[in-house]
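Key idea: predict the complex, not the pieces.
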Amino acid sequence: MRAGGGFGADTAARVLCRVLGLAVACAFAGVAPATAADSTASRVPKPTIAITTPGKCVEDREVILRDHMDLLKHQRVLTVHEGIRTKAHSLENCVACHASRETGRVTGSKDAFCESCHRYAAVRLDCFECHADRPATGVAANMPSPAGTAPR
Amino acid sequence: MNTGNGNVDHGRRQVLAWGAAMAGVALAPGVTLFELAQARPPSEPASAKVRWGMLVDVNRCATDCDACVVACDRENGLPETKTATSAQWIRKVELKDLRGGPSKTAPVMCQHCAHPPCVDVCPTGASFKRADGIVLVDRHTCIGCRYCMMACPYQARSFVHEPVTDQKPEVPRGKGCVESCTLCVHRIDRDQIPACVEACAATGHKAILFGDLNDPGSEIAQAIATLRTRALRPDLRLDPGVVYHGL
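Result:
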């Protein structure tokens, strides 16, 4: 290893380079959406998120997108080990609400509610190897109560 | 269940009404089929004050009847056509006196032991006993090693060898896990009795009594206090939640 002083100068130069690089990147990033917003919207593929059932979800869209797996995992421990069967975060309740009107399922096609996102993100969907991917008695029978009265 | 906004769940009320109507069905003097269970709201965990159990009256169990087995299969989505490797949660066992006495049959399922050997040997903690005494498998953590099947003296557990489709929403099951009688835990959690008990009562035999063993006022506790009952393999001192009368 070289002397301490030389090492310090080298590190300072690297940091300077990085800061400059970051600034340049930020500048481009700031400009890019303004110039290319229209073209990127159509070019970037998006998953199909078809929500046919009216009403409000048990959580906000951002919370569900980011944390649905944690909510489900938390609920599964409560249900299996303690017998707590509140509906809000239960997989059964998700399926009852989000099953396709055509197929009655949340998996099985590229447009199915769960599968479309999971295919898009390339995340394996293991839940339905054991859990039913369709409601007990068809979609219509499991229509949730209107917004604001979601079962808890 | 009240949904919190004044809407009354009429389905649940109806179930409670049926329960009230059937609570008076007498098995024997002082012994009724079941009592009204204490309603537990869905947000409340299972209580350790309760211990669910069953009393099987072997004398009432008809030798040619398999209503409990059929009801179990239907309730839990088990395959109707059996193969050598099909899961089996409850089975009818024939008991024959080798000296030429009458043969009897009795249903045998997970005995929901107070000291379950399956829980002792489980390497992942998947096999566990719930607070209210129900012995279950958490399929999320089960690795399918089948130690519990070896440990169970009642041969009550099954391994799922084949992929499963068309599961019941309330009874998830899948390939690679061990499973057994859950005492219809999904029904108990909504204050219903297990499917086999209901089916047995529907046939008129009323050979299975279900209830809270810890509640001295419950029908099952009173029946156990008055009748001569015994556990299967009492020498193992596992304190099963299922006891038999008339063996």
